[in-house]
Here is the input.
Amino acid sequence: MKYFQEKTETMAPEEIRKLQSEKLVRQVRHVYEHVEPYRWKMDEAGVRPEDIRGVEDLPKLPFLTKGDLRDEYPWGFLAVPRKDCVRIQSTSGTTGRRVVAFYTQHDVDLWEECCARAIVAAGGSEEDVVQVAYGYGLFTGGPGLNGGSHKVGCLTLPMSSGNTDRQIQFMMDLGATILCCTPSYAAYLGESLRERGISPEDNPLRAGIFGAEPWTEEMRRSIEKTLGIKAYDIYGLTETSGPGVAFECAEQAGMHINEDHFIAEVIDPDTGEVLPEGSRGELVFTSLDKEAFPLLRYRTRDICILSRRKCACGRTFVRMTKPMGRSDDMLIIRGVNVFPSQIETVLLKEGYAPNYQIVVDRVNNSDTFDILVEMDEAMFGDTVSAVTGREKALVAAMRAMLGIGPAVHLVAPHSIQRSEGKAVRVIDKRKLVTEDENFLNRKN
Ligand code: DLL
Here is the structure.
């Protein structure tokens, strides 16, 4: 099986555009009639549903942000009667109030089909045993890939995240061939297999579908080596249903966006101007078929580039690069823009495992910038001067990449906490202070 839905996935680009235009007209009308807060936005912008006649009219519509959704928590953006919904999922709420997404059965089916496309693109078929080690529950990772795996007809292991001993036992006993989890947990599973003396050739896995957090090409190669698999990227966000908005094919050259269900635009995050293909900017999604939680021009804050170049896999859907940093993930340290992904690239290139933590603080009005990096057992046995030499070499490599030099601390093996879901790579103590201050201000 090469495609899950061949006819759709290989549609001619002009056919896709025609389909998108037809669906957009309907989706805009649905939103205008049923989502009051968006109707206000359209009224304020002076746009009527009949002004939207096709994809070319999309820029007339106002943007929607996470803040808009939070302001209307929980019911404000629900576009169908509550009795028609069968499910909710939700964001973790770590950076503020939660966003709750609603689904009708039709919405769940479309979402699961998107995930099924991703599994088939990773070589999956009914012969496969899919181990889903994303969290289940409010997080969309587990339920999404679980549903996709069912649609393909794979034997599905609904492991959820954590309990690494049990993960390994089921993987080995039931012969899991495809692993689905965050890349940081995949790296941890690889490390744990090695510690148990199970070599990459001895585990039954052959592919992995990893996403939900940024990960570099270097991290991909490292996971592929430690697990002995081919690693595929998958992208999505709770607001647009969950994983499966975009997925990688065997070419591993960007993720195909399911354009029959979503229109993707890239905009200048400062001006909101739509940028031409090939430009780096903020990704904006418009849903086309959603009943319960349709979103028009939703700003993801993920920064990426779109490409319409033909893909050797035969899929015609536009491709997005890995979102290598959210506009709000970027750290500004002593005035310099730093993306955690740049740090990961340096560390893996220099031969370290992806076990690191970035700590930023402010002392005497000046930013401090520390990177904790784990050594492996062999490095840990080195002399003190050898370790100091390694630290110096890393500082130099970081300075060359970032333009500023962090303090690098090589720490003992296993001293940095492993992640079972999304890894916490950055501890920005400056932010904690600001949040506390805000809280205090609100109380007063
Ligand atoms: O992370 C959905 C998901 C689950 C995607 C499983 C893939 C696999 P949220 O928790 O709402 O949803 O977080 C969405 O995570 O805006 C990106 O910043 C980031 N993200 C998701 N996938 C990727 C990826 C899920 N492949 C936010 N690469 C998004 C980089 C990703 N970042």
User: Anything to note?
Assistant: Residues 91, 134, 140-141, 211-214, 233-238, 242-243, 300, 302, 322-323, 326 surround DLL (CB under 6 Å). The two ends are 62 Å apart (CA to CA).
